[in-house]
Design goal:
alpha/beta, seven-stranded mixed β-sheet, 200 residues
Length: 200
């Protein structure tokens, strides 16, 4: 798979994210881990990239399963004893069942196929927690925007779409009746954190 330099090595990815989040990169994972309930023992993380959240789940005694399209990230996670699997969500059939599904910083990759993604997550999870950047470096000046979008692609094509707060809220509103869920916006800063609760 052809990907940008940021996704070539975990340490490069972690360094880039630390710079972007101005030293508070790990705080985004801490916020998500704090939302897990005592009864949520099995966690499925989609597009996990780094293993910071997996480490937090391990410390809390939870079972973590991670799916990612990046072979290097999956190999590193597996070498560290995590249940990580290589999977392209765009083409995967079934997902592992879990108490809670988590996606941190990757929803924009699926903006054109959100109904399908949400339906598949609904079929296997008790609820869905999303942390999505809504204040992006790709929203800056033209030069920075172009470099950022090319520097963070995970496939052969440069990705130009990013959510902002308004577009993410609009997408959730459009989806909730179609898929069957209610949602709650928990936190908005650089990332917007959303809890999705499925309707029967």
């Amino acid at each position: 798979m052809l990907s940008s330099f940021i996704y070539r090595r975990v340490w490069i990815y972690r360094l880039a994210m630390t710079v972007l989040y101005r030293g508070s990169y790990r705080a985004r994972f801490d916020r998500m881990a704090a939302l897990l309930t005592a009864s949520e023992r099995s966690v499925l993380e989609l597009c996990f990239g780094d293993t910071v959240f997996a480490e937090l789940c391990r410390r809390q005694g939870r079972t973590w399963t991670g799916l990612d399209v990046n072979e290097r990230f999956v190999a590193r996670a597996a070498a560290n004893g995590y249940d990580a699997h290589l999977l392209d969500l765009r083409h995967a059939a079934d997902l592992p069942t879990c108490d809670v599904c988590v996606m941190i910083g990757s929803l924009y990759h699926f903006h054109a196929r959100l109904p399908e993604l949400f339906e598949r997550i609904k079929a296997v999870s008790g609820r869905f927690l999303i942390s999505e950047p809504v204040q992006n470096w790709t929203h800056g000046n033209a030069l920075l925007r172009g470099l950022a979008r090319r520097g963070t692609r995970v496939g052969p094509d440069a990705e130009t779409f990013r959510f902002d707060e308004a577009s993410l809220r609009a997408s959730l509103e459009a989806l909730r009746g179609r898929v069957g869920f209610r949602y709650r916006v928990i936190h908005v800063a650089r990332d917007m954190i959303v809890e999705v609760l499925w309707s029967s």
